[in-house]
């Protein structure tokens, strides 16, 4: 028998477990060992996700690379969509069989308990994690007060007061309010399964998490309403914007493109260093959309589907800030020559610019709502630059905890990125000044008053 070796894991964010695997094990046996490490019996309704600490996914199989206890892989085990659906495929008899498999397997796979390890093999007591605790029954939707749904249309909406299930319901509301389910005959259960699947595919990064996804979508929805441009957009374009914003950072590992490229991660190899993250977000989105039970685009006819897919990919790729200058220049050209809603290229770029605005829109929000995001973003940046230093990789000064101050980071970003972007879009969309641009200018004054730091 080939030599077994230890694989060190952090399971569902809270438990350290070390398992021993052997190259002689089959894929199913390794999978079952990982389920067991997470305290589950194997089941068709479990989704397993194994990644390196930097979030890069590892294949589940007998050739998981060996690692050390101080660079544990992250193991995330969560119910699949079958568990959410009343017509899910798991029969109750599967559980007994699964336990037998685990019991048999434990003879082959040694589970070494770390100091803090708790291993449970009782399938009725799965480890509690945020992802699992928030599972939603598909048919129950919160009906929101009119004051809430009206406020939802405005950039001042308080995005902190909602838990994840409520954010899902608010997203459902946006589809309903645009009458997209009616128009395209999209099943509400499919929409909810889609959103649930999306929610579970966002990681727990300080910044690039499901709440950021909700914020971006809500700001896009708010921008459409305050400018009234939703009345000029087709249902397909509104669907495009909603799905793009919802999917735009899916499975973000918390380390940016520069890191992906410099560290030669799997993502940078897969996408040849070309917007590796944005390509990944779009690919994860369309993977979710490939399953019939989560495919909100299924009812579209072929021509609409093709158009929608093309536009969504365009919107998501446009969120790579490396493309910022080029997109600004093109949009400026359109705006100066006379923006035309009759021109498909103009409309398409407008969707991308709206997505970009929404993505970096935190400073449009009132200070008490926007400020915590700055801390979260800096935390994510600092974690990255710490790792880059540790790995001997180049690191950006704007991510260096020794060099950056909150005010310094914000002044430069607001002044040189946000204001020019929003002012340019305001040349095409009406009514941006008071609800959108004035708050950004106030934020600039606020951070200037706090004192410009070294990067300003
Ligand atoms: Zn984003």
UniProtKB/TrEMBL annotation:
<keyword id="KW-0140">cGMP</keyword>
<dbReference type="GO" id="GO:0004114">
    <property type="term" value="F:3',5'-cyclic-nucleotide phosphodiesterase activity"/>
</dbReference>
<feature type="binding site">
    <location>
        <position position="249"/>
    </location>
    <ligand>
        <name>AMP</name>
    </ligand>
</feature>
<keyword id="KW-0378">Hydrolase</keyword>
<dbReference type="InterPro" id="IPR003607">
    <property type="entry name" value="HD/PDEase_dom"/>
</dbReference>
<dbReference type="InterPro" id="IPR023088">
    <property type="entry name" value="PDEase"/>
</dbReference>
<feature type="binding site">
    <location>
        <position position="248"/>
    </location>
    <ligand>
        <name>Zn(2+) 1</name>
    </ligand>
</feature>
<dbReference type="Pfam" id="PF00233">
    <property type="entry name" value="PDEase_I"/>
</dbReference>
<dbReference type="InterPro" id="IPR036971">
    <property type="entry name" value="PDEase_catalytic_dom_sf"/>
</dbReference>
<dbReference type="InterPro" id="IPR023174">
    <property type="entry name" value="PDEase_CS"/>
</dbReference>
<feature type="domain" description="PDEase">
    <location>
        <begin position="132"/>
        <end position="454"/>
    </location>
</feature>
<feature type="binding site">
    <location>
        <position position="410"/>
    </location>
    <ligand>
        <name>AMP</name>
    </ligand>
</feature>
<feature type="binding site">
    <location>
        <position position="359"/>
    </location>
    <ligand>
        <name>AMP</name>
    </ligand>
</feature>
<comment type="similarity">
    <text>Belongs to the cyclic nucleotide phosphodiesterase family.</text>
</comment>
<feature type="binding site">
    <location>
        <position position="249"/>
    </location>
    <ligand>
        <name>Zn(2+) 1</name>
    </ligand>
</feature>
<feature type="binding site">
    <location>
        <position position="359"/>
    </location>
    <ligand>
        <name>Zn(2+) 1</name>
    </ligand>
</feature>
<feature type="binding site">
    <location>
        <position position="212"/>
    </location>
    <ligand>
        <name>Zn(2+) 1</name>
    </ligand>
</feature>
<protein>
    <recommendedName>
        <fullName>Phosphodiesterase</fullName>
        <ecNumber>3.1.4.-</ecNumber>
    </recommendedName>
</protein>
<feature type="active site" description="Proton donor">
    <location>
        <position position="208"/>
    </location>
</feature>
<dbReference type="GO" id="GO:0007165">
    <property type="term" value="P:signal transduction"/>
</dbReference>
<feature type="binding site">
    <location>
        <position position="249"/>
    </location>
    <ligand>
        <name>Zn(2+) 2</name>
    </ligand>
</feature>
<dbReference type="InterPro" id="IPR002073">
    <property type="entry name" value="PDEase_catalytic_dom"/>
</dbReference>
<feature type="binding site">
    <location>
        <begin position="208"/>
        <end position="212"/>
    </location>
    <ligand>
        <name>AMP</name>
    </ligand>
</feature>
<dbReference type="GO" id="GO:0046872">
    <property type="term" value="F:metal ion binding"/>
</dbReference>
<keyword id="KW-0479">Metal-binding</keyword>
């Amino acid at each position: 028998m080939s030599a077994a070796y230890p694989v060190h894991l952090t399971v569902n964010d809270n438990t350290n477990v070390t398992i021993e695997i052997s190259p002689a094990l089959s894929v199913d046996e390794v999978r079952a060992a990982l389920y067991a490490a997470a305290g589950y019996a194997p089941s068709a309704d479990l989704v397993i996700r194994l990644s390196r600490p930097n979030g890069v996914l590892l294949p589940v199989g007998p050739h998981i690379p060996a690692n050390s206890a101080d660079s544990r892989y992250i193991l995330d085990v969560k119910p699949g969509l079958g568990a959410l659906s009343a017509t899910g495929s798991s029969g109750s008899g599967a559980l007994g069989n699964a336990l037998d498999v685990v019991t048999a397997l434990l003879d082959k796979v040694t589970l070494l308990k770390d100091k803090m390890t708790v291993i449970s093999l009782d399938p009725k007591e799965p480890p509690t994690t945020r992802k699992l605790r928030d599972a939603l029954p598909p048919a129950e939707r919160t009906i929101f007060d009119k004051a809430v749904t009206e406020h939802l249309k405005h950039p001042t909406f308080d995005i902190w007061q909602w838990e994840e299930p409520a954010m899902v319901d608010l997203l459902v509301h946006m589809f309903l309010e645009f009458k997209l389910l009616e128009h395209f005959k999209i099943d509400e259960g499919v929409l909810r399964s889609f959103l649930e699947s999306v929610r579970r595919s966002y990681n727990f990064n300080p910044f690039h998490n499901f709440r950021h996804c909700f914020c971006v979508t809500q700001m896009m929805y708010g921008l459409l309403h305050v400018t009234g441009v939703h009345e000029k957009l087709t249902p397909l374009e509104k669907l495009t914007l909603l799905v793009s914003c919802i999917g735009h950072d899916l499975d973000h590992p918390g380390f940016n493109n520069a890191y992906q490229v410099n560290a030669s991660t799997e993502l940078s190899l897969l996408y040849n260093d070309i917007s590796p993250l944005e390509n990944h977000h779009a690919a994860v989105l369309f993977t979710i959309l490939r399953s019939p039970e989560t495919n909100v685009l299924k009812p579209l006819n072929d021509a609409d589907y093709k158009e929608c897919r093309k536009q969504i990919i365009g919107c998501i790729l446009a969120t790579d800030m490396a493309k910022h200058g080029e997109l600004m220049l093109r949009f400026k050209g359109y705006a100066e020559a006379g923006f035309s809603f009759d021109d498909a290229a103009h409309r398409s770029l407008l969707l991308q610019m709206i997505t970009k605005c929404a993505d970096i829109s935190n400073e449009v929000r009132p200070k008490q709502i926007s400020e915590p995001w700055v801390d979260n973003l800096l935390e994510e940046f600092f974690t990255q630059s710490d790792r880059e230093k540790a790995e001997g990789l180049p690191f950006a000064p704007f991510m260096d905890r020794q060099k950056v101050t909150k005010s310094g980071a914000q002044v430069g970003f607001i002044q040189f990125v946000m204001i020019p972007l929003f002012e340019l879009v305001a040349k095409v969309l009406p009514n941006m000044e008071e609800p959108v641009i004035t708050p950004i200018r106030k934020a600039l004054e606020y951070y200037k008053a706090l004192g410009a730091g070294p990067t300003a």
